[in-house]
Design a protein that fits this description.
By secondary structure, the chain is α/β, with parallel strands linked by helices. It has one domain (45-241): Aldolase class I (TIM Barrel, Alpha-Beta Barrel). The chain has eight helices and eight strands. Belongs to the radical SAM superfamily. KamA family.
């Protein structure tokens, strides 16, 4: 087994009989990077998406001229077996509230940045109070047009979309974009639909990103089924990533 431990929520555990769920979350001999021996993988890289190459401050990554990404939290509600940040040094490189001054200085120095992405880990593992502080700082900046939250909690920990979080979304909705991470229609249960419905009722823009995964969604029919379900719920299929 790998050195990236399984981490599941009760919601995910209850659906492990579905192969599309089990493949994503259960460690196995077939899991990618299930061993530390990468000698037969010449293209392997621990920093697969070049986060460190584009680091501009603690927990701050800028790969594109007008976008800044913050590693807002070091933890997720679950561990995806295909995680490309499993080797990320969260202990040393996670954005903290004390870094807000540096963040503002960086935005002052780069007025071309009009979009800030809160990632991680999962930014919704932050408390509502800390989210309010961070989003509030970004929201007040005229140059920041969009604040994106990339999260998996809607389908794996739907109770996180609680009353206080919905209040934050209502307050900041003119700039807020929530990018869900859903790979298969089996992930969307009644609780997830309800959480999405609450967000939609506020007028929050909802997008989805998926990762193309063998045995999960590697067919046009499966992807079409997911897209159709997302459209029905008011979520725009936006990214399909190949890792």
């Amino acid at each position: 087994m790998s050195n990236f431990p399984e981490k599941l929520t009760a919601t995910v555990t209850a659906r492990l009989s579905e192969p599309a769920i089990a493949i994503q979350f259960l460690d196995s001999a077939e899991s990618i990077l299930a061993t530390n021996d990468t000698s037969n993988l010449p293209e392997f890289a621990y920093d697969a998406v070049a986060d460190q190459t584009h680091r501009v401050g603690r927990g701050m990554i800028q790969k594109y001229r007008n976008r800044l990404l913050l590693i807002a939290h070091s933890h997720c509600a679950v561990h995806c077996r295909y995680c490309f940040r499993r080797h990320f040094d969260y202990a040393q490189d996670t954005f903290q509230e004390e870094d807000i001054g540096f963040l503002c200085a960086h935005l002052d120095a780069h007025p071309e940045i009009d979009e800030v992405i809160l990632s991680g880990g999962d930014p919704l593992m932050l408390s509502n109070q800390r989210l309010d502080t961070l989003i509030g700082v970004l929201y007040q900046r005229a140059g920041v047009k969009r604040i994106r939250l990339h999260s998996r909690v809607v389908t794996v920990l739907s109770r996180r979309i609680n009353t206080r979080f919905l209040e934050l979304c209502r307050h900041y909705k003119s700039k807020l974009v929530i990018v869900n991470h859903i790979n298969h229609v089996a992930e969307i249960d009644a609780a997830a639909e309800q959480a999405i419905g609450h967000l939609r009722a506020l007028g929050v823009m909802l997008l989805n990103q998926s990762v193309l995964l063998r045995g999960v969604n590697d067919s046009a029919a499966t992807l079409n089924q997911l897209s159709d379900k997302l459209f029905t719920l008011g979520v725009m299929p936006y990214y399909l990533n190949l890792l």
